[in-house]
DNA sequence: CTCATTTGACCCTT
DNA sequence: AAGGGTCAAATGAG
């Protein structure tokens, strides 16, 4: 599949400003009680408007069939061959479709043998288990979790947890969907449910543009094994430093993201500027340290692409 | 009583 | 058809 979406130089500042606006609105969202209905509703409309504007501002590539902008609203207006008649069982179909098109991030979490923990450590969110399956060829079953606030705040986040075959102290955790609950540590209106501990304040969604902008190093590796290193902010006089070339489908990021939401944000950013859809990039967090200290991430894609990323990291 | 987990059945995707 | 993901009734814990 070819994307070839280099985007218009003139659009970059506009898109950048819009994204900053969206990020700021989301910061405000985290400070706002959902119970305060009017401000909450207005803020949602603001975010929605910004995302509409982003959709209009992004590069249009006629070769790309999927133009949906992945956003937190997860209402991806995808219309390639779906058209399912809304007779019955529609909801189920929608859920599956979302599953297929959502970004996915996998991390490995090592559990200290002496800690007595049965599963991976807290990741800052509260989860409710809704299923478990024995997986063919795997020694250990896979657990299925969804965000506790799925019904009350329409939060689409889910995760799967499976103990590694090779190392029983390691759990593979796959996250899908970005949290929309943005729960506050001292939100009295929300009953604490499964999580006995207070929520970790550091796990509030962070904002990648702000967090990684000062020092980001990217290693892009092609399917042929050839790789290039990019640094942001870029070194002067090297315009090639910030051009992502085609055929470089594996990208390693070195930075200090503070939450899993940072990874999702970066995936959104990539998809947005390439005009690709939400499922075109998936991530692997290639470290076995606790989430807040995870230093590396890897972004995977089967696409060939090219774009200039210079204006997004300074 | 309320809410979380377990577990077999069902549905969807490949 | 097989395997994976989700549902929902039954069960358990607090």
Automatic annotation (TrEMBL):
Give GO terms: molecular function aspect only.
DNA-binding transcription factor activity; transcription cis-regulatory region binding
Where does it reside? Nucleus
SUPFAM superfamilies annotated for this entry?
A: WRKY DNA-binding domain (SSF118290)
Q: Mind telling me which Pfam families this protein's record contains?
A: WRKY
What GO cellular-component annotations does this UniProt entry give?
nucleus
Q: Which domain of life is it from?
A: Eukaryota
* Bias (Polar residues): 183-197
Q: Which protein family is it in?
A: Belongs to the WRKY group III family.
Q: Which PANTHER family match?
A: WRKY TRANSCRIPTION FACTOR 19-RELATED, WRKY TRANSCRIPTION FACTOR 30-RELATED-RELATED
Protein name (record): WRKY transcription factor 41
Organism per entry: Acorus gramineus
Query: Where is the organism placed in the taxonomic lineage, from the top?
Result: Eukaryota, Viridiplantae, Streptophyta, Embryophyta, Tracheophyta
């Amino acid at each position: 599949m070819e994307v070839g979406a280099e985007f218009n130089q003139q659009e970059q500042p506009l898109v950048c400003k819009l994204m900053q606006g969206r990020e700021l609105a989301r910061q405000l969202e985290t400070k706002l009680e959902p119970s305060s209905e009017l401000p909450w509703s207005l803020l949602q409309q603001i975010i929605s408007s910004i995302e509409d504007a982003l959709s209009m501002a992004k590069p249009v590539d006629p070769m790309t069939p999927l133009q949906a902008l992945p956003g937190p609203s997860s209402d991806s207006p995808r219309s390639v061959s779906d058209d399912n008649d809304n007779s019955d069982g529609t909801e189920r179909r929608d859920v599956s479709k979302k599953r297929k098109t959502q970004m996915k991030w996998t991390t490995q979490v090592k559990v200290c043998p002496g800690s007595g923990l049965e599963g991976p450590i807290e990741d800052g969110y509260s989860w409710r288990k809704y299923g478990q399956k024995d997986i063919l060829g795997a020694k250990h079953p896979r657990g299925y979790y969804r965000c506790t606030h799925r019904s009350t705040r329409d939060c689409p986040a889910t995760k799967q947890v499976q103990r590694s075959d090779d190392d029983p102290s390691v759990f593979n955790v796959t996250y899908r969907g970005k949290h929309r609950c943005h729960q506050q540590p001292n939100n009295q209106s929300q009953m604490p449910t499964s999580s006995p501990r207070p929520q970790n304040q550091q796990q509030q969604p962070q904002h990648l543009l702000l967090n990684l902008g000062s020092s980001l190093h990217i290693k892009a590796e092609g399917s042929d094994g050839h790789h290039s290193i990019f640094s942001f902010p870029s070194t002067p006089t090297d315009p090639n430093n910030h051009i992502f070339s085609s055929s470089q489908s594996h990208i390693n990021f070195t930075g200090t993201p503070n939450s899993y939401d940072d990874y999702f944000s970066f995936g959104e950013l990539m998809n947005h500027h390439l005009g690709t859809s939400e499922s075109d990039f998936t991530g692997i967090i290639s470290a076995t340290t606790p989430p807040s200290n995870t230093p590396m991430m890897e972004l995977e894609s089967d696409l060939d692409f090219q774009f200039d990323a210079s204006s997004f990291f300074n």
